[in-house]
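Supplementary Methods S3. Complex input for the 6-O-phosphono-alpha-D-glucopyranose-bound model.
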Amino acid sequence: MKKFSIVIAGGGSTFTPGIVLMLLDNLEKLPIRQIKFYDNNSERQKQIADACEIIIKEQAPEIKFLATTDPQEAFTDVDFVMAHIRVGLYAMRENDEKIPLKYGVIGQETCGPGGIAYGMRSIGGVLELIDYMEKYSPDAWMLNYSNPAAIVAEATRKLRPESKIINICDMPVGIEERMAKAVGLSSRKDMVVRYYGLNHFGWWTDIRDKDGNDLMPKIKEHVKEYGYSLKEEMEESQHTDASWMHTFAKAKEVYAVDPTTLPNTYLKYYFYPQDEVAHANPEYTRANEVMAGREKHVFGECNRITKAGTAKGTTLEVDEHASYIVDLARAIAYNTHERMLLIVENQGAVANFDETAMVEVPCIVGSNGPEPIVQGKIPCFQKGLMEQQVAVEKLVVEAWTEGSYQKLWQALMLSRIVPNARIAQEILDDLVEANKGFWPKLS
Ligand code: NAD
Ligand code: G6P
Ligand code: MN
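Predicted complex, serialized as structure tokens:
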């Protein structure tokens, strides 16, 4: 049986150890001969890599391991690039969140002005990874979950149309796990879903069990009462902080706006921006929470493992919910035709929507990539929202490509989260200043 070689780009990510543990846990599904880490920050990556090297030696000594900042070494002889970079690190995420808040506008990692600012930083970073992959391993596939996925996906569609990159998000996976739990199923994989939207901006329209029984009424009953909160919280490594619990509860109010569908949690930022501002602490945002929580824990624990020389008794957890990445790699490697939600060019999947939009829809995935499944025509409400939002995403990519201040201002103003053109411009001018050295020069 063929064994695969994988490079994790963003080796210094807080998610890397959980993903490595998850890969080691799934070796019978996806055999691996080599894991490489690539990052452009050697000091950050080394802390994660030294611990992961010990973990791999203890669990699967036959797997070759290497961490490097040299693109040639990293991208040569690989089958898959698993990409999760954060250009600008948490320091810049903190700016993305805090600058809009100064103007009474929500600041968020992937939505509104924060997501736009992050997009302007990410595009170049992800394109660079694609170019390394194509130069050193032209047959490889990139599985990208670097954010903001919507903007990154539009940039890769437009600027690298022939590249073998698949953009994927874990939020639907996380929500579906909650839905399954709410109706007493043991796994989201017992459900078959229909869904459409943009990344962090979509809706479920149909959810059935494997026998074809309609689960929507029962799930809706739950969401109407509790949102995506569970009476008994589930064991999960990622979405556990108090702010996530608030998000899951808030889904109840998001659902109320259109009870014919079930919403993605991220729609709360677009439907109730003022509530989010009221709930935010402009001195202590999600970036601060993550730095004090996940980042501190992961780096602290990795350093401890390295010092101890063993991972025995570690508190690092298998990121089981990231096993969708293995499903995706398997689908390509073994032509499994797995049905998965992916971010792909529309081309008629949402029949009455821009063909060139990057939409999130169920796809059948095989060795030749994803085949989107037609979701048909969508109603006026969702269509109106999506048209406005996709224009934001397209304008950001145009602004990045052309170095256009005007287009970026238009993108900000068009975001539902921003109240008017003046505030959009004030936020933009602050973001330009904060992102010097990360954004292309705008004029
Ligand atoms: P992190 O800052 O801990 O890790 C990111 C790493 O990327 C850092 O080590 C950084 O040095 C590195 N990096 C930055 N720019 C780079 C470049 N140009 N080339 C190579 N490496 C570079 O961040 P994190 O919180 O662990 O998140 C990582 C990424 O994963 C983020 O983009 C985050 O939004 C994304 N994410 C996406 C999903 C999804 O649903 N799509 C889920 C979780 C996380
Ligand atoms: C979800 C989203 C990701 C996002 C993450 C943020 O999983 O799908 O796109 O990056 O949440 O989580 P954090 O814990 O960093 O705020
Ligand atoms: Mn996501």
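The chain has 16 helices and twelve strands. Residues 27 and 320 are 13 Å apart (CA to CA).
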